[in-house]
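Input chain follows. Return structure tokens only.
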Amino acid sequence: MQDITISTLLDMTAGLASGHNDQDRFNKLLDAIRKVIQCDCIALLGAQQDTLLPLAIQGMTRDTLGRRFKVSDHPRFEQICQASGVVRFDADSPLPDPFDGLLLDYDGELPMHACMGLPLIYADQLLGILTFDSLTPNVFDSIPDRSLEALSAIVASHLKVALTVSKLEQQAKQTQQRLEELNQEVWERDGGKIIGSSRAMQALKQDIAVVAPSDFTILIHGETGVGKELVARSLHHQSRRRQQPLIYVNCAAIAESLIESELFGHVKGAFTGADKSRLGKFALADGGTLFLDEIGELSLTAQSKLLRALQNQEIQPVGQDNVQSIDVRVLAATNRDLKHEVEQGRFRADLYHRLTVYPLNVPPLRERDEDVVLLAGYFLEQARKKLAITQLKFTRDALIQLPRYDWPGNVRELEHVINRAALKAKAKPQQAATVSVSALDLALEQNDVMPTTPAVSDTVAPAVVRIKDLRQATEQFQAQMIIETLQRANYNWAGAARELNLDRANLVRLAKRLGIQVTKEHKIERSS
């Protein structure tokens, strides 16, 4: 046996560090050992309860790796496992060799040969064994026990490190897989795809498809309840970061004194109450996406700290001197007009421009009448599942009423209305197996007082209806003005739109919502 030189130790360590997988690492370890001990075959076996599993072999047939050796069935292995040091077997030992018939380029039973084994013990725990075989009898007898014991300790340490690395890699892989499954589960549970076929939603979906694969910072603007969070999730799901976390932060819910710690984290003792170190949202989102909802609510001080993180992709936890590099894509959302906020000095201009690399505007529900019934159907199905109803549907009057309401609370209001209506419908005595949600269950006030008016020509004024509130009065005024303008424009929508200073498509949508239509006979009808 050659001495265990620095070069040999370096070979072992380099093999451990450069291996791409366990098999690669263990083979490089055996390569380094064979430079010290000459043999015809060598095997590294790991201990798993009462069984030895081949981790790496050299000089034996490949099928050996697939074998499992129960220790009690192999006396030689049993002796090695129970020993505290090197075990040599006489050339004429009657004990059967577990590797008999498995040596490469040698058929038949093994002749007299040299056999030796080393138990690999780390912290009083048997990790495995290392075996050597040579067709030259007694070749291992001259190797000092002290050298072999040193080799055993070195290999055991390397094996412990390799197994630990393998375990950590497996845990990381499992964690990553769980994260991907959770991301997918949340995506599917919450509906995933954005519902809507209106022109405005088609344009939004197209914008999302264009910008999602990039790493651009995006500002999502829209009224309360339009679905800005769903847009953010769609952007993340269609990005290259979809397998990484999407971290949500409600900027409006964080106290000014805690915003820095919440976003960037802190170290233990950084301030009163910091009894342990804590990662911030940026660190948690590293490699993924950070969604900053209600970003317009941040103070100017917090905005300046956020700007630095966006510009340099660096964060500095509270109480820590060093900065940390991060890889985070930021999506922000607000219902405020940030451009106006900048003009009023309430929002930093440089942060505004940093956020609006690719702005997205989510249209309010009143501008996408065609989508109301689609969304209502989706929410009705969700309500059916929650309430354990076999069959749930809308009545015809409910379907007529839904698109005529303004929906000031947007999609969120629609969802709540449908849930309440479904609950009311379920509570009623049902004659049939199908539960029906009626217009009365929806309880949309403005439609409860809009009677059908007769068809009117250019000589007939619109019918007067009883007014209950400001919204109904406004709609009544809008309807009358549209009808009069259409009459003056000879029932031409484009001409009427120009006179009212409106886009033609918007005028048509408004008229539809108000129940106004022009017949082929050039009569204007307004239905309930």
